[in-house]
Design brief:
Distance between the termini: 11 Å
Number of strands: 23
Shape: globular
Number of helices: 14
CATH class of the largest domain: Alpha Beta
Bound molecules: ligand EPZ
Strand content: 25-35%
Radius of gyration: 21 Å
Number of domains: 2
Helix content: 25-40%
CATH architecture of the largest domain: Alpha-beta prism
Largest sheet: 4 strands, mixed
Structural class: alpha+beta
CATH superfamily of the largest domain: Enolpyruvate transferase domain
CATH topology of the largest domain: UDP-n-acetylglucosamine1-carboxyvinyl-transferase, Chain
Length: 421
């Protein structure tokens, strides 16, 4: 098992290029099943989750060619089964998108329950509610979700919970349905707009993505297209926080600044300089950050996926901060690890109270989930002394070349395999 070894205290300076968004890629790749012709997907991040989705597409019989590390050509006309493999499905949360895509195209899907980060209860009842509203029969047995429909008829669906996955999954199932589907109380994340743009490029008729009401007018058939994945706001946000935590000065390139408005606003509140310029922004640390309160909310609010890295910056801020995690009921597993570094954090349910200290001290840590792992890397960069992080599979699911990019910014970080140490 690989580990990361970080010598803390080095200031991050220079430029970092942001890759394509993981949470767009893991939706758009399964969505290519709906296409009746070849799709070329560009700016894909070279991460485990994308490789796992590729494996599932190939297991289903799709013709998948990796043209380069960030470009894939897919033709789903050769798909010969609607049953997703159990072992592949449990490797990530986004395998649930194969239900909407296979149901939408073939009116049948058998997908084992998805895996994904252990950050609390993660039901898929809203996905199922949407599929049933469209006329699908859903049965769940032996850990497999079976969806079947003679035909799919457009319907009006009000989501009880603002859900990224359910919003996208219902969009996928509704594209080729008869009639119009309306999703109300829809999530507004950039990934949803990106996926809707991809589907419309195939010939779908989707309006309102990015608002809380999305209208999908069913069409007879979809063609193929070329699509470029949007930049990853969570990767960008992680580097913004790392730059500030290391008291550095870093230019974050190839981003859409508006996707980062909530993070930029919070960091400015902390006294950190954020200078936006077209498709990049510069983070300039400015002494010790001030403590601020964070409440995670659906987009455009502060994203839950950056709560964990931000808790590191707040651990060394001047003052006491309160984090309210309103999306998940178990997204503080990184706190026990940060406490090993001297952090003063008290967690009660969905609230974490953080009393800022001057400096964290390096320690051996174990990544518990993707963004917790990213938080530990940020902590190791800013801490005094050496930090060793194990369980890197979590981090490799969502960050492309993390340690390489950090070394290019001046960090002292290296990946070793168990034997090397
Ligand atoms: C997506 O997960 C992201 N993953 C998550 O990012 C992200 O944290 C989350 O959206 C929220 O922004 C992918 O896109 C692959 P939700 P998803 O459905 O779709 C509840 C990362 O770090 N809910 O928006 O699974 C759910 O329990 C990952 O990249 C239901 O109750 O999240 C949660 O409390 C972690 N019933 C809330 O809604 C449902 O049917 C939001 O979940 C679905 C969700």
């Amino acid at each position: 098992m690989d580990k990361l070894i970080i010598e803390g205290g080095h200031v991050l300076e220079g430029e970092v290029n942001i890759n394509g968004a993981k949470n767009s890629a893991v939706a758009i790749l399964p969505a290519s099943i709906l296409a009746g012709a070849t799709c070329t997907i560009k700016n894909l991040p070279d991460i485990r989750d994308v490789a796992n989705i590729m494996d599932i597409l190939m297991q289903l019989g799709a013709d998948v060619k990796r043209e380069s590390h960030d470009r894939m050509i897919i033709n789903s006309n050769s798909i010969n089964t609607y049953k997703v493999d159990f072992e592949l499905s449990k490797k990530l949360r986004a395998s649930y998108y194969f239900i909407g895509a296979l149901l939408g195209r073939f009116k049948k899907a058998e997908v084992p329950f998805p895996g994904g980060c252990d950050i609390g209860v993660r039901p898929i009842d809203q996905h199922i509610k949407g599929f049933e509203a469209l006329g699908a029969k859903i049965t769940i047995e032996h850990g497999v979700i079976r969806a079947e429909a003679k035909e799919l008829i457009g319907a009006s669906i009000f989501l009880d919970v603002v859900s990224v996955g359910a919003t996208i999954n219902i969009m996928l199932a509704a594209c080729l349905a008869k009639g119009t589907t309306t999703i109300e109380n829809a999530a507004k994340e950039p990934y949803i707009v990106d996926t809707a743009n991809f589907l419309n490029a195939l010939g779908a008729n989707i309006k309102g993505a990015g608002t809380d009401e999305i209208k999908i007018r069913g069409v007879e058939q979809l063609g193929g297209c070329e699509h470029t994945i949007i930049p990853d706001q969570m990767e960008a946000g992680t580097y913004m926080i790392a730059a500030a935590a290391s008291k550095g000065n870093v230019l974050i390139k190839n981003i859409i600044p508006t996707h980062l408005d909530s993070i930029s606003a919070k960091m400015k509140e902390m006294g950190i300089e954020i200078i936006e310029n077209g498709d990049s922004l510069r983070v300039v640390a400015n002494g010790r950050p001030k403590a601020v309160n964070i409440k995670t909310m659906p987009y455009p609010g502060f994203p839950t996926d950056l709560q964990q890295p931000m808790s590191v910056l707040l651990s060394v801020a001047d003052g006491t901060a309160i984090i309210t995690e309103s999306i998940y009921d178990g997204r503080f597993k990184h706190v026990d690890e940060l406490k090993k570094m001297g952090a003063k954090i008290n967690v009660e349910g969905r609230i974490a109270v953080i009393e800022g200290i001057q400096k964290l001290s390096g320690a051996p840590l174990c990544a518990t989930d993707l963004r917790a792992g990213a938080a530990m890397v940020v902590a190791g960069l800013s801490a005094e002394g050496q930090t060793i992080i194990s369980n890197l599979t979590h981090i490799d699911r969502g960050y492309e070349r993390l340690e390489n990019k950090l070394v290019e910014l001046g960090a002292v970080i290296r990946r070793v395999s168990e034997e090397d140490r």
